[in-house]
Amino acid sequence: MKQVTIVLMLAALAGLAAIGCNEAVVKPQETYDPDADLTQFESTLVPQEVTYAPAPLVTVSDGAHSLTFWPYTGANFSGEPQDPINLIFVGKSSPLQIRAALMALDGNRPAPFPPVPPFTSVWEDAIGDAQSGYSVNSNWTGGVIQLACGDYSSARFHIRLFRMGDWTVANAHFEVLIPGTADHQVLSWELAEQFVIADFIRCGLLDPTTPIIPTDQVNQSPFRSIPAIIYNGLPEELKQLIGGPAGSVDADVPIATDGHAVILNMYGAAQVIPGTFEQDFTLTYDQVIPKPFCQNGFDNYVYVQGPVHLRQVVNVHAGGLYDFAFRATGELSVLPVNPMTQEPTGSPLTAYVRERHAGQQGPRLSWLSSLKLQALLPGSTLGSGKQFTGFMVGMNGRNWYKQDTQCHQD
Questions:
Q1: CA end-to-end span of the chain, whole Å?
Q2: Tell me: the pLDDT tens digits for 53-75?
Q3: For residue 15, which of 232, 288, 350, 231 has the smallest C-alpha distance?
Q4: Which backbone phi and psi does 195 adopt, to 5 degrees?
Q5: DSSP β-bridge partners for residue 276
Q6: pLDDT tens, residue by residue, 211-223
Q7: Above 60 in pLDDT, residue 20?
Q8: CB 350 within 8 Å of CB 331
Q9: What letter would DSSP give residue 101?
Q10: Residue 89: phi, psi to the nearest 5?
Q11: Cβ atoms of residues 375 and 393 within 8 Å
């Protein structure tokens, strides 16, 4: 789960744990049902046809066919890029077939990959935020199927797959969990691209004549950056692995990518195995983070503490239908603080977190939805408020995006 909050790790601040837990805990006086509140918000979402085409669009070809698409992923339909597309699949290349191919592999990867997790891990369904892609032939589409190699709570490779007619495009990235949060920081696009290519070579499913087709540059290089305070906390071996500078840095570090994508020409198909696949775990927030919404000057940073429960269930059906449902729930204590002195700067609040993601993908349908609520209560406290986000990438024009932020500023 990547967007419970947008975080900047401040674990390097000495004595963070000195903030007393009892100071941060507060129970709102009013009775509040976050699930009912999120359901009420969902009822206000109206499907609409999204005709906007993001820019730039690029065209790639395997020699016989071509695809014109937006070389990024999005979190809505605005055209603001989130992640760069760095892998493209053609041939027997539906997201479900790609999933089957990667999940059939063991974790025995040869050099140059080091013999430690996540390089020795196996692929599984990923918990991750909902994103959109765009192509001329398919319009907007959702990344219903996501995969991860490595544990959510440490470091992992993460790939999102977007079906576009006879093609599938993907973003793959290498990321780490930010300590004391439920959120990840991307460290490299390039390392993840090479990792996935190496695994598909191991699969033995690529066309022996033209297995890999490089593209021209399709997106920015580099793209986004790693905050310096996070980068400085990485082991030196990991900095070397992602091609970053040694030692400590004063400025954010660009995330490595050459801006080129690679077309993988799928000649064979792995067997799709029906079944139910569940993940269920709890992560604990214990960190100072930028307040994600309703900042009021005195409360730009907050100390957040408490558990977030994550559960996802994936079903693969014999007829080639993939569906999933994800839920995240949390009740956290929130205390505005000065990040340098750790002194409280405002009244404590309680945060309620709710996320619901769901989707289906099969031979004749594809849709993806996401609903989020973050509520800071009690509502009479300065700096309290609620933020709702709804996102739907459907079929036949059933799309929506809406964000509603309500802040108490008096």
A1: 33
A2: 999 999 999 998 999 999 999 99
A3: 288
A4: -65, -45
A5: 315
A6: 999 999 999 999 9
A7: no
A8: yes
A9: H
A10: -120, 140
A11: no
